[in-house]
Amino acid sequence: MKNFDTSKVNYKKKGRISTVIVFVVQKDGSLGDFSVSGENKQFNKEALNAIKKVDVKWSPALINNLPARQRFKVPLYLTFD
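RE: above sequence
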């Protein structure tokens, strides 16, 4: 993900960290209603910043051929060697 700056994530040991980003694709294709959960606050913050920098409109859900809001849940992992 080109918008993600791993240098801002402070993690001192080997292993994997994770977070989950939840957001809504609005009827117009924009993203909103963000939430993020994970143990590493820097990773959460950088993951949220990265998803907010996405400037491409998404395709909204369709219900009866009408645009509708849709919630997405995206797990992210970062592994340190």
